Structures are given as structure tokens and as C-alpha cells.
């Protein structure tokens, strides 16, 4: 989880408060001191921290605490509100989030200093929207850095996104205009223009940026900011904002180091929302940023809505009932196992998934993620050499037939031990999934059956490894999730929980 150290320090301070039976001024002061220290250590601007502390004190009335109210909850809420407030631009008016309109040629220009991760982020952005059904295209208007076009070309080719650039043209505004025109003709609905980043010659960078903007008339200008520069981001953000019409911010490199607070608080200077954050070099290490769920994860309170959205991204809603029907009918096959593995891979790094579950952030030991992924790959490779009959059967007689097992192993270039491992895995999963047989499914248009819902909750709790469930606050944690999702269609939700249940089991199987 990004800013993990800040999060655990804050959560730790709040947890300590819960240990006191009586919360007086002294206890509260000590807690606030720790909260302040954590924020300063994470490089959050000192002015914000001072203001934040004042606001928290205002919100948490010590007399009320003495009256026996849950001090931890009250303070947690105040800290939550203040962090949200800071990330949303200190209460100032912040622009609405930009969502490209489908079917129209949306032009998005990326700006930022050299090395901030702009080119990488352009591809991540394109890939994100491609998964959502857009037709993105990339234009390289960076004529300053030798190799910039090759880098974009390579990234774009990998993600199968059309691109445009030139090795000979030296005028970035011309390349940008030509590229945008070409992709408008080709009916691409998200045209992303990557511009040059520079270190020192900032005046010429800004002039060039102006020219490119004038040439392509972007619908949105995204400022990419490297979080590792800390509070220096503040001046940078102001300078960019003063030159071009920055409407969104993407913060990169929020993985791996604790001091993300500087950059995050600097965003307030742009009066623009953070649209996404980059959490690694890989194309899917990119997350849409929503302040409240982010802060919730930061404080170790989880982000159920984000998790469910992620599951929806991976298993489209219309395919979930089909999967559930098969499971309820007790037809767990190798093909379903394969699909589940593919879904896990699509969900991206398991550590980022875990951070959406309350209390689970940072629980995944280093190295285990890699080992699990290798195991999944190995098993999928074996399944690739299975026949349709083997993939669609539930008969162990077929799956454990020695001749077939030998052939499958040979076909995948694997030894017999690996095939045995796969079949054992299938047997374990099949047994577990068998528990879903006969599970009461919600009727279309709503759940409306509290007894069945309670039963499913129990089943779901049973699917989550006990140590994880404990971290989540046991059944209360699950119920909390329901509360957070109040107002959503319960029928849909239970279908989603089917997906989650599958995930929970899978994680258990993978030793997580
Ligand atoms: N760890 C991490 N690395 C990142 C992230 N985003 C980008 N990078 C890395 O940062 C380095 C610079 O990224 P580029 O995309 O080349 O930067 P740029 O801003 O386009 O650079 P110029 O074209 O010179 O302006 C590369 O090594 C990227 O892999 C991120 O979110 N996390």
C-alpha cells in the first residue's frame, strides 16, 4: 500500500487510544502528537499539519469523550475528515474529475518534468481506458529526449495501442497536431499526447508546452508529478498550473518509499483532483484515485467498494451469474479453475488487492507473491495442454488417468510431479467449491431474503482464512462492508460476493 508507513503510524496512534479506559486531555494530546509526527515524517507540509491538528481538536470535544463515547472512533473520524480535506485541496473549490466521453475524440495532454514517469504513465492511462472499452492512441511529441519515441513505441506495442511519432520532425507542435489529426480520422476516442520533460531549461519547456497545447487544444491537461521529490512538488505544481490549464494530477512512484506526503499535499496547489496514482513500473501498477477510499485504506480501514470494483473489472457483471450458476450446480471444472487463475492474474499484484481489505495491508510476506504467481503460471501452462474433455469434466477418473497425466506433463514440458500438484489443487478447490452447491442465490432485482443473506455471509466468512477474517474484524467486518455498500442492489452485491468468495478461497489455497 502506498504511504504504508504513514498509514501504520496513524493507525497505531489511534489504536493506542483505544487502550485507555478514560481518555483525558493528556491521552488525547499524546495521540495527537503521534498523529502529527507521522504526518511530518511522511513529509506532509508543516502548515497543513498545524492546521489539521487545530481542526481535529475542534472536532473532538474532550467532554464528549469523557461521557463515554468511543474516543478512538471519534478521533479516527476527525483524522479521516482532515486527511480527505487536505487531499481534496484544503476545502478549496476543486474541479470535477475528467471522464473521457465515449465516441468523441477526447484529446489529453500529459505534462511534467523529465523523468517524472510521464511516458510510462501515458501508456498506463491508455491501457486503463482500453480495458474500459475506449479506443486510445498515443502521440509522442517529445522531440527533446533521444529515445523517447522508441520508449513510447515499445510500451504502446506491448499494450497493443496505436501510436504516432517521428524520428525526423523536430517541431513537437507539428508532430502533436499531425498525430491528433490522424487518430481523429481513425476514430480513436482517447488521443493521448506525451510532451517533453526537461530538467533545467524550464522556460523553453513551458514555451513548448504552450505551443503544443495551442496546436492540439486538449480537452484535459494532466500534470504528472514524481512523488519522490517531496515538498519540492509544491513549486513545480504551481509553475505548471500557471503555464497550462492543468485539470488533473497523476502522482507516480508512490511505491517503495514512505515520503509521499509531500507530493500528495502539494496537489492542493493545483486545485485539481488527483486522478490516478502510479504504484510501480508495470503497466497495471496504476490505480484510479478516490480520496475517501484512499484515506480509508491509509488508516487501515480497507476499501470494500474499491475491491468490489476491481472484481467487476476482472469478472464482468454479466459473466458472474453464469459462473455462480455453475458453482451452485456443483460443476467445478479445470476450465473454471483456469478462468479463476486468469482472473487473479488480471487483478494485478495481490498485495494491492490485500490493501483494500481492512487490516490486511502489508500482510503478504515478501517473496510469497512471486512464488504464488509462478505456481499459478505453472498450473495454467499444464492446463493449456489439456483436451476439452479434460477441461470440462468433473470426473477424477479421467483427470487421474496415468496416461493422460503423462501426456499433459509432456505437452507442457513439465514433470509428473507438477501434474500431480495440479490435480491435487483441483481436488482441494473442487471440494471447497462443492460447499457452494445449493447455495441460495438472490432473485433478480434484489436480495430481499435476509435469512439466505445471513447464510451466505456465514459461508463467505468460512471461505476466508481465519487469520484474515480476524484482521477484518470477524463477522462485524463483513457486516460493515454491507453497511458501506448500503443502497447498492443487494442482488448484484451477493453475486459479486460470489466472486469474492472465490478469491478468498483461492488466496487460502495459495497459502495467503
Ligand atoms: N517505481 C516506479 N517507477 C516508475 C513509476 N512510473 C514510472 N516509473 C519509472 O520512472 C522512470 C522514468 O519514467 P519515464 O516514463 O521514462 O519518464 P518521463 O517523465 O517520460 O521522462 P522524460 O521523457 O525524460 O520526460 C522509468 O524507469 C519508469 O519505469 C511508478 O509509478 N513507480
Automatic annotation (TrEMBL):
Oligomeric and partner information: Component of a signal recognition particle (SRP) complex that consists of a 7SL RNA molecule of 300 nucleotides and six protein subunits: SRP72, SRP68, SRP54, SRP19, SRP14 and SRP9.
Job of this protein: Component of the signal recognition particle (SRP) complex, a ribonucleoprotein complex that mediates the cotranslational targeting of secretory and membrane proteins to the endoplasmic reticulum (ER). As part of the SRP complex, associates with the SRP receptor (SR) component SRPRA to target secretory proteins to the endoplasmic reticulum membrane. Binds to the signal sequence of presecretory proteins when they emerge from the ribosomes. Displays basal GTPase activity, and stimulates reciprocal GTPase activation of the SR subunit SRPRA.
UniProt GO MF annotations: 7S RNA binding; endoplasmic reticulum signal peptide binding; GTP binding; GTPase activity
Subcellular location: Cytoplasm; Endoplasmic reticulum
Protein name, per record: Signal recognition particle 54 kDa protein
Family statement drawn from the similarity comment of this UniProt entry: Belongs to the GTP-binding SRP family. SRP54 subfamily.
Taxonomic superkingdom: Eukaryota
Pfam families found in the cross-reference section: SRP54, SRP54_N, SRP_SPB
InterPro entries: AAA+_ATPase, P-loop_NTPase, Signal_recog_part_SRP54_M_sf, Signal_recog_particl_SRP54_hlx, Signal_recog_particle_SRP54_M, SRP/SRP_N, SRP54, SRP54_euk
One record GO biological process: SRP-dependent cotranslational protein targeting to membrane, translocation
Domain SRP54-type proteins GTP-binding: 273-286
Catalytic activity: GTP + H2O = GDP + phosphate + H(+)
Gene that this polypeptide is encoded by: SRP54.2
Keywords carried by this UniProt record: Cytoplasm, Endoplasmic reticulum, GTP-binding, Hydrolase, Nucleotide-binding, Ribonucleoprotein, RNA-binding, Signal recognition particle
PANTHER family reported in the protein's UniProt record: SIGNAL RECOGNITION PARTICLE 54K PROTEIN SRP54, SIGNAL RECOGNITION PARTICLE SUBUNIT SRP54
Lineage: Eukaryota, Viridiplantae, Chlorophyta, Mamiellophyceae, Mamiellales
Domain remarks: The NG domain, also named G domain, is a special guanosine triphosphatase (GTPase) domain, which binds GTP and forms a guanosine 5'-triphosphate (GTP)-dependent complex with a homologous NG domain in the SRP receptor subunit SRPRA. The two NG domains undergo cooperative rearrangements upon their assembly, which culminate in the reciprocal activation of the GTPase activity of one another. SRP receptor compaction upon binding with cargo-loaded SRP and GTPase rearrangement drive SRP-mediated cotranslational protein translocation into the ER. The M domain binds the 7SL RNA in presence of SRP19 and binds the signal sequence of presecretory proteins.
Endpoints of the signal sequence: none
Native organism: Micromonas commoda (strain RCC299 / NOUM17 / CCMP2709)
Amino acid at each position: 500500500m502506498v504511504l504504508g508507513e504513514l498509514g501504520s503510524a496513524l493507525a497505531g496512534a489511534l489504536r493506542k487510544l483505544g487502550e485507555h479506559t478514560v481518555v483525558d486531555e493528556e491521552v488525547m494530546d499524546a495521540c495527537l502528537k503521534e498523529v502529527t509526527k507521522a504526518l511530518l515524517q511522511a513529509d506532509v507540509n508543516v502548515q497543513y499539519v498545524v492546521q489539521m491538528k487545530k481542526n481535529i481538536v475542534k472536532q473532538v470535544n474532550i467532554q464528549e469523550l469523557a461521557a463515554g463515547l468511543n474516543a478512538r472512533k471519534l478521533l479516527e473520524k476527525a483524522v479521516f475528515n482532515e486527511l480527505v480535506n487536505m487531499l481534496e485541496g484544503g476545502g478549496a473549490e476543486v474541479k470535477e474529475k475528467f471522464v473521457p466521453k465515449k465516441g468523441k475524440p477526447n484529446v489529453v495532454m500529459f505534462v511534467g518534468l523529465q523523468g517524472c514517469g510521464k511516458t510510462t504513465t501515458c501508456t498506463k492511462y491508455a491501457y486503463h481506458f482500453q480495458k474500459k472499452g475506449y479506443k486510445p492512441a498515443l502521440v509522442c511529441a517529445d522531440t527533446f529526449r533521444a529515445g523517447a519515441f522508441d520508449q513510447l513505441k515499445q510500451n504502446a506495442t506491448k499494450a497493443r495501442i496505436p501510436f504516432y511519432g517521428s524520428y525526423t520532425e523536430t517541431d513537437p507542435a507539428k508532430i502533436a497536431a499531425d498525430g491528433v489529426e490522424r487518430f481523429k480520422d481513425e476514430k480513436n476516442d482517447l488521443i493521448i499526447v506525451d510532451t517533453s520533460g526537461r530538467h533545467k531549461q524550464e522556460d523553453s519547456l513551458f514555451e513548448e508546452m504552450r505551443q503544443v497545447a495551442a496546436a492540439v487544444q486538449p480537452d484535459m491537461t494532466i500534470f504528472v508529478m514524481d512523488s519522490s521529490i517531496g515538498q519540492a512538488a509544491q513549486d513545480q505544481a504551481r509553475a505548471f498550473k500557471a503555464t497550462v490549464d492543468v485539470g488533473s494530477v497523476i502522482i507516480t512512484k508512490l511505491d517503495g518509499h514512505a515520503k509521499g506526503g509531500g507530493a500528495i499535499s502539494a496537489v492542493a496547489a493545483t486545485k485539481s483532483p488527483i486522478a490516478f496514482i502510479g504504484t510501480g513500473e508495470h503497466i497495471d501498477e496504476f490505480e484510479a484515485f478516490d480520496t475517501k477510499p484512499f484515506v480509508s485504506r491509509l488508516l487501515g480501514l480497507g476499501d470494500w467498494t474499491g475491491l468490489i470494483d476491481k472484481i467487476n473489472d476482472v469478472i464482468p457483471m454479466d459473466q458472474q451469474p453464469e459462473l455462480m450458476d455453475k458453482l451452485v450446480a456443483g460443476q467445478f471444472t479445470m476450465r473454471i479453475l483456469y478462468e479463476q487463475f486468469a482472473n487473479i492474474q488480471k487483478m494485478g499484484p495481490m498485495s494491492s488487492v490485500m490493501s483494500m481489505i481492512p487490516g490486511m495491508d502489508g500482510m503478504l510476506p515478501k517473496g510469497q507473491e512471486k512464488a504464488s504467481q509462478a505456481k499459478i503460471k505453472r498450473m495454467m501452462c499444464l492446463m493449456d495442454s489439456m483436451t476439452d474433455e479434460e477441461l470440462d469434466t468433473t470426473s477424477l477418473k479421467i483427470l487421474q488417468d496415468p496416461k493422460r497425466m503423462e501426456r499433459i506433463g509432456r505437452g507442457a514440458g513439465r514433470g509428473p510431479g507438477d501434474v500431480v500438484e495440479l490435480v491435487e489443487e483441483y481436488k482441494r478447490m473442487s471440494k471447497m467449491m462443492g460447499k457452494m452447491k445449493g447455495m441460495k442465490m438472490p432473485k433478480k432485482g434484489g436480495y430481499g431474503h435476509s435469512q439466505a443473506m445471513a447464510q451466505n455471509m456465514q459461508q463467505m466468512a468460512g471461505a476466508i482464512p481465519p487469520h484474515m477474517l480476524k484482521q477484518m474484524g470477524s463477522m462485524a467486518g463483513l457486516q460493515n462492508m454491507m453497511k458501506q455498500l448500503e443502497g447498492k442492489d443487494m442482488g448484484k452485491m451477493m453475486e459479486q460476493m460470489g466472486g469474492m468468495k472465490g478469491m478468498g478461497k483461492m488466496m487460502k489455497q495459495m497459502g495467503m
